[in-house]
Amino acid sequence: MNKSAIDTGILLETGTNELEILEFYIIETLENGKEAKNYFGINVAKVMQVIETPNLEPPESAPHPSFMGTIPLRDLILPVLDLSVWLELNMPKTERDIVIVTEFSKSVTGFLVSGVTEIHRVGWGEVIPPTSVISQSTDAIVGLVDKGDHFIQLLDLETILTQIEPEMDEEMTISETQYKVLVADDSQTIRTMLKQNLTEANLKPIITNNGQEALNKIMALKEQAESEGKDITEFVDIVLSDIEMPLMDGFSLTKNIKEDSVLQKLPVILYSSIITKELRHKGESVGANLQISKPDLHRIPEEALKLIEG
After folding, report:
1. Which of 58, 14, 217, 209 is nearest to 129 (CA)?
2. Where are the domains of the chain?
3. What's the CATH fold of domain 167-309?
4. Which residues have a Cβ under 8 Å from the Cβ of 65 and sit 6 or more positions away?
5. φ, ψ (nearest 5 deg) of residue 32
6. Which fold does the domain 3-163 belong to in CATH?
7. Is 299 in contact with 292 (CB distance < 8 Å)?
8. Which of 184, 175, 190 is nearest to 206 (CA)?
9. Of 215, 253, 303, 304, which residue is most buried, by most CB within 10 angstroms?
10. Rounded to two decimals, what is the model's pTM?
11. pLDDT tens digits for range 11-26
């Protein structure tokens, strides 16, 4: 499966709150000796291609237990991670295993899995936020899609790479005024990082877990402002949102804000690990003021200040 085959039809209409996911599975050997399939999904736009297993043997000096080594692909040398190790699944290795080669966050990485099934188009409204009903050992599971006979667990690969390769400390911009930043992100790791960065920059984060929660919050703030005869900027100065989220994505959130006569003055920054030319066009079409790739999240305080004060 190559990139051109995967690309077909992924450019969905902006504001439809939809995405396409590649479903794959990891076989797990249970304690009783039986095998079970665990189904996962990732955004098709992050997938370069799917290749056969390179049958790597993890080096003794591996920087992380899931690191299997590197392989050449075209003009690249990319690391391969055993996703079952990271997810703590006892996956039996076979000659039929595959590597999903992904490109996002300015990096190309291979993830070893048991196999792929098919591509699904789903609405973010169909994605069930993870709950305590389905126990997970990782916050990389950002949502569930019910396919009737099984659940597809949506993986946030950025969370995995962030925890394996933590970002280096960056010089921080400090704001003289404590502006209020409404944040929408479904990843606990990214929320924690943004909360810390914004707070250190003397900005006040208002944290929400997805686009729908963010829209509910900003509508409540708008109602409070109107009831008290105040301007909306006394309650929130800027909106910062991930693009891919359960219930409502960042594009739909931005569209709702920019179509509201009171809220449209608020700057909106969208970010994703895959800010392609097509996605950038989508963000512009719904009125986003700025779009940033996730590796550049350290720029958020500085860019937010420019938009608020500029």
Report:
1. 209
2. 3-163, 167-309
3. Rossmann fold (3.40.50)
4. 58, 85
5. -85, 5
6. OB fold (Dihydrolipoamide Acetyltransferase, E2P) (2.40.50)
7. yes
8. 184
9. 253
10. 0.72
11. 345 556 888 999 999 9
